[in-house]
Write a structure and sequence with these properties.
It is an enzyme of class 2 (transferase). The chain is about 40% helix and about 15% strand. The protein has nine helices and six strands; from the N terminus they run E-H-E-H-E-H-H-E-H-H-E-H-E-H-H. The chain has a six-stranded parallel sheet with strand order 3-2-1-4-5-6, with helices on both faces. Helix 1 links the parallel strand 1 and strand 2. Helix 2 packs antiparallel against helix 9. The longest helix is centred in the last third of the chain and has 14 residues. The protein starts with a strand and ends with a helix. The model has no long low-confidence stretch (mean pLDDT about 90).
């Protein structure tokens, strides 16, 4: 079997994330793709939407996707969550399957800062997707390591999409929020959830 694992904060999940997930399933011929929502150590917790909200929106976003599921192992950890720990666990769960770990081009550029980054290649095939149609270049030490060990990293080119979670959060923070401007950025059931949540506050 060919399995994909898509990590991120999904803060919130948007149509760009869904486009990427579907593109990965098609391009990599995946039998299934797991979303791995996280509370990464690199990001300020104050900038993260509540875990329950992010998880609920993700559930709604993929409700009709038969080849997608959510894996909450990173949220369930009570200590700092690192990708190396996750990929080791995935290798134990799916030892005979092809495992593809999806990361963004901006994450790839900073891959050398990840804990035990060299070991990650022992457990998964890294797939880097572009942001706005362009791939960032990894640090020299990463490029050298890949060359020395003949490691293949797959590049997934995505269409340019003018959707960013940070932009969405700014729009949501505006009072009153113009939800009509978010129709082309968020899945409809995610948008409905956010609107209902705002109404409950009033």
């Amino acid at each position: 079997m060919r399995f994909g694992f898509f990590g991120g904060t999904f803060n919130p999940v948007h149509l760009g994330h869904l486009t990427l997930a579907n593109e990965a399933i098609e391009s990599l011929q995946l039998d299934h793709l797991w979303w791995l929502p996280a509370n990464p150590w690199q990001k300020d917790a104050a900038d993260l939407m509540p875990v329950d909200d992010r998880l609920e929106m993700l559930k709604r976003a993929i409700a009709d996707q038969t080849k997608m599921s959510i894996d909450t192992r990173e949220l369930d950890r009570h200590t700092s969550s690192y990708s190396i720990d996750t990929v080791k666990e995935l290798a134990q769960l799916y030892p005979k399957d092809d495992r593809f770990y999806l990361i963004g081009s901006d994450q790839w550029e900073n891959f050398h800062t990840w804990k035990n980054w060299r070991d990650i290649f022992d457990y998964v095939t890294i797939v880097v997707f572009s942001r706005n149609g362009q791939h960032n270049v990894p640090a020299t030490e990463v490029s050298r390591f890949l060359s020395q060990h003949a490691i293949e990293v797959k590049m997934l080119t995505m269409p340019a999409l003018d959707i960013e979670s940070s932009q969405i959060r700014k729009m949501l923070a505006q009072q009153p929020c113009n939800y009509s401007l978010l129709k082309n950025k968020l899945p409809s059931n995610v948008l409905n959830y956010l609107q209902a949540k705002e109404l409950r506050k009033d």
